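== Sequence and structure of one protein ==
=== Format: two labelled lines per protein ===
==== Data for this protein ====
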Amino acid sequence: MLSWEPLLAGDLGRRSHLALKEITEDLLRRVASPPGAGDLPHFSLARGHAGQALFFAYLDRVLPGEGYDDLAIDLLERAVDALSNLDVRPGLYSGFAGVAWVAEHLQGWLLDPDDADPVEGIMAAILEHLQQTPWRRHYDLIGGLVGFGALGLERHPRSGGAECVALVTAHLAELAERQGEGLTWLTRPELLTPQAAEMTPQGQYDVGVAHGVPGVVGFLAEAVGAGLAPPAAGPLLAGAVRWILSCKRPSRGGLFPYHIAPGSDLSGSRLAWCYGDPGIATVLLAAARHAGEPSWEREALEAARLAAARDWSSSSVRDSCLCHGGAGVAHLFNRLFQASRDPELAEAARYWFEWTLADRKPGKG
C-alpha cells in the first residue's frame, strides 16, 4: 500500500481547515432542520442523507470524538427509512443503490457486519432488477449497470456481492460492440436527453467516466483487482481500454472528446471527473495497475501530465463541485500524484485546491 503524502500545508492547509469547519457547520444546521411541509426526504448519495452520512463518517476519522460517527449512522438510517415511503429509481447516484453502497462502505468501520443487514432488501431488489434480459437500460456508472457493479464490489464478500458483479459483467458482454481493435458501448438515442438526441440521432459512444466507457473500465479493473472478475472481464477490459485510446483527439482542449458519434467531429473536453482527461487518466491508471499493463500506465500518465499543464483559462471549469468543478479536479490530481509521485501532478493538485478556495464564498458555498 502506498504511503500518503499530504499536499496542503502552511497557509493553504490553514485555509482548507477553515473551509472544512464552515462546511461542517453549515451541514450540521441543514441536517438538524426539520423538512418543510410537503418536502420529500432527501435520501440519495448525490444529494441527500446517504452522501451526508459518508461525509460525516470521514470527518470522524479526521476529528474523532466529536460525535460525527453517531451522526453518520443516524443519517444513513434516515436514508434507509426514507426508501420505504418513496418510489425511487435503483441507480447509484440518485437511487437506492447509492444508499446501499454507503451502508456497505461503512461495514466493519461504523457498522458491525454481525448486526442485522440494513440493506438486505435493497440488494435483493437490485439482483432481481439485473435478471432482465436483454438489458435495455443505461450501462453507465451514474444510473446503470456500472453503478450496480460498484455496489457489488463494495458488498463482497457479503451475500449477493459476487453475484451482482457477475450479472453486470454478463450484461456488459452482451452489449459490447467491436470497433476496430477495441470494444465500446452505445448509448441509444432514446436514453439520451432530448438535446443530446437531437445532436446525435443515432446515439453516441460516450467517453466520460460518469456516463461512458471509462466508467466500464473502472468497474472491470476493480473486479480484476478484487479477484471477482468472471472470464469475460479481462477481454472486455482490454478491448475497452483500446477503444478509449483510439479516441484521442489532441487539441488545446485536451486529449479526449466528450463522445464519438456518426456525423460528430468533437475534439477536446473540460477538465473534470465526469468528462475529460483527469477522470480518464485516473481509471486508466487503476486499470494498468490491476491488469499489470505498463503501456496503459504510460498512456494514463501522459494524459494526466497534459491535463496538469492546462490552467483555468483552457479548462472550462466554472464552479467548485466534485463532478465537474475545481474541487473534483484537485482531488483527481491529488490521487494521481499519490499513485505516481509525479511532482507535476502534485503541483496541479495544489493549483486547483488554491483555485477552489479562492472561488469560495463564505456563508454561501
Remarks:
- The radius of gyration is 20 Å.
- DSSP finds 14 helices and four strands in the chain.
- The first strand starts at residue 177 and ends at 179.
- Residues 176-365 form a domain with the Glycosyltransferase fold (CATH 1.50.10.20).
